[in-house]
Amino acid sequence: MSTRFRAAMRTMMPALALLAFGAEAGATTINQNTSWTIDRAGTTTKYRVVAYGDSIYAGYNGSLFSVAKYAGPVVEAEYLSALWNADVEQVRRTKSGAVASDIYNNKIVAERSYMQSSNTRVVAFEMCGNDGLQARSAFKNQTGTCDVSGLDTALNNCKTYVAKAMDYINANAYAGTKLKVISNLHYPGYNADNVQSSCKNASTGTTMNIRDTLLPYIAKMNYAMCDLARQKGFACVDAFAQYMAADYDSNGDGMIDSDALRYVAGESEAAYVNRITTTLRSTIRDSNTHFVSASTSYDYIQSDDTHPTYTGGTISSGSTGTGAPRYTSFTGGKNPVWNQYGHERLGWGLSTFNPVAP
């Protein structure tokens, strides 16, 4: 395959998984399915973790032909392997660039057999980012009078298909599944979106700040995911809080910023949205510089200003592989790089809900 063809394909393929506000939307999608088994010494018992989603769970790294080996779901499998002293097969059934309806219909429903296996113990999924991406791009390209109906549609579609996905997983996952979990959306391009729109507000006749317009929609999507999880027996990894706020108390309110932003079970949508967009707005930071202390930060986003950073190399899309765990134990339930890369942080977030026994 020629270099020119590969470059052309990468240009055509957005493969974006969440509100990827640093790049333009597109309709192209591609399956990037992989399976990786954590082969732990001294055991032959093997359990399965299944993850459905788009390019975030895929471990997209800018290529159609490879993905991050240690994407968040595989990092989660590594934690489980240590906790259960067992081999853990992590199956990723992902479609980069797919909107929520596509993931629901063509991954969760069409590929339900992966979660029906009798060794399945965890089913995870994420969706909605590309719905937001496409609505965001349409809004950003508008001229004349601004129209937010596309953002409203993206939000409504997100709510609809997250609920459908949870109901379907509840009805179809293996009866012995111990954990069902969703991850919500972080906001890549947070700094880049602090610009004015080309269109004008119908009421004021002035342009609108892109970030100010989009943040409430992200908050409503994230609230819907975590609150539906609460209602339907799922755990919810609050990726927005984990990625978008510091791991120390920057505003002196007595709470670590990333804890303060987190969804609180039972709170109203209005209360959550107000907390994110107003009360704690000053603590939100672009995750290109995720501060783990007042003096140390790490880059959670790749150079595309969209997808999480990772360590541990890549594997070919569509491949199946096996390898020993990188770490044999976890001090305080965390590996040594848990907060240094976007995918490591996602995997750790998933691991905080791990059942103590398979």
Written account of the structure:
The protein has helices at residues 3-12, 55-58, 72-84, 100-109, 113-116, 129-140, 149-172, 210-232, 239-244, 257-260, 269-279, 342-351, and strands at 30-31, 34-38, 46-53, 66-68, 87-96, 120-125, 179-183, 196-200, 207-209, 235-237, 290-291, 297-298, 314-316, 320-323. The protein has one domain (3-351): 3-Layer(aba) Sandwich (Rossmann fold). Strands 1, 2, 3, 5, 6, 7, 10 and 14 form an eight-stranded mixed beta sheet that branches. Strands 4-13 form a two-stranded antiparallel ribbon. The N and C termini lie far apart (44 Å). With 358 residues, it is an alpha/beta fold. The protein is built from twelve helices and 14 strands.
Structure in a nutshell:
With 358 residues, the chain is of the alpha/beta class.
Comma- or semicolon-separated keywords:
358 residues; Rossmann fold; 8-stranded mixed beta sheet; two-stranded antiparallel ribbon
